[in-house]
Amino acid sequence: MKLVQQLLQRNGLNTHRLIKFCILGSASFPLYSVASVEPAPIVFDNGIAATPTLILGISHDDNITSQGKESDSISSFLYTVEPSIALIGEVRNHEIYSSIGAGYGRYTSSREDDYFDYFANVGANLNLGAKQALDIEASFKREHESRGDGISEGAGNLLIQPIELDRVTFDGIYSYGAEEAKGKLSFGAGFEEVVYQNYRVLNGPNQARSTRFKDFDAVELTGALTIKAHSALNSFLEVRSKKTDYTFSKNQNNRLNLYYLGANWDLTGKTSGFAKFGYQDKKFSNQSNDFSSFSWNIGLTWNPSEHATIGFDSSRIAEDPSAISGYNDTIKYGIFWQHHWLERLNTRFSLTSNNEKFNSDSRTDDTITYGVSANYDIRRWLSISFGVDVTDKSSSEENIAYDQLVAYTAVTMSL
């Protein structure tokens, strides 16, 4: 669910631009980032615009099952094909959009890890007058978890193929307030359902890893009051509540409440971003795992020159673990530097750090990922990317820690 990001956009940035970006970006399933293209959509007589996109990739992964540092890892080349098409049009001043896409991956040295993902979504940006707007979106995704990721972390060698799951989401956000009004109100609601498709019933010592125990549905409600403090600065109060119910593991049922004070800004075209600080309260049905703490979410970008962008983000939130019960107190930091050396050539350097503390088994994980990539726009409709991502994960449990290096190249094509 994208409610938090959409609320931030609605409270000072452009929600329509965000949703369009999500449509065009949602076709990219795999590990790598790709260069941007500027497609020329096909416009039909009825005004509907269609934008097809094709991404072809090849990468090499030296640890495709995220095996522990003391174990023998599997390395392989991966070929990916990702077609998608996005449709957008207007009906009585309302913007309607839809997209479908797929992602196929083939490993040359480990065919059991091949995957086929696909998605479809539909949504609308409804203009209800000068002061009101309603954005709605529904989506379906067939996704996969690579062996050693998600539910199978630390035990990827026990599986014979990736884990598959279906994800259904419905989101809506209503806002009240004119563009230049001193105050704005936003209310959001979202629903998410996840159902795993294989490994649902395991026996013996691995019974607890049966994927059915991670089936869930979640309902999220969000509200925000925004006050325009300056033409380029907004302050806001945000309240968010998410209730998650697990179908076959009732002791994991929980509600996460978040209370934030924050601001977003865009100053002189040089500095933009948001920052919010507050309190989080996560309560479980059995009360044994209840947790509360200080919480934050920060995203900043700075343009020291016309050709350079530096970004920073950080957050702290109590998440539901992928493989075990309870919660993991997760603190994330990230920084990147993107530089346009030429009109068509740019590079990007990134560093992310995740610290996770799990309450159920006193486990602590630290994950650091380094990334470097170069993007070259060959034509308006054709771009190519090269990059390397290096991951170093340490953990208090030896079978969870691993090293991984992925080198990739990808070609993005449109019209």
TrEMBL record:
It comes from the Bacteria. InterPro entries: BBP2_2. This is Outer membrane beta-barrel protein. It comes from Grimontia sedimenti.
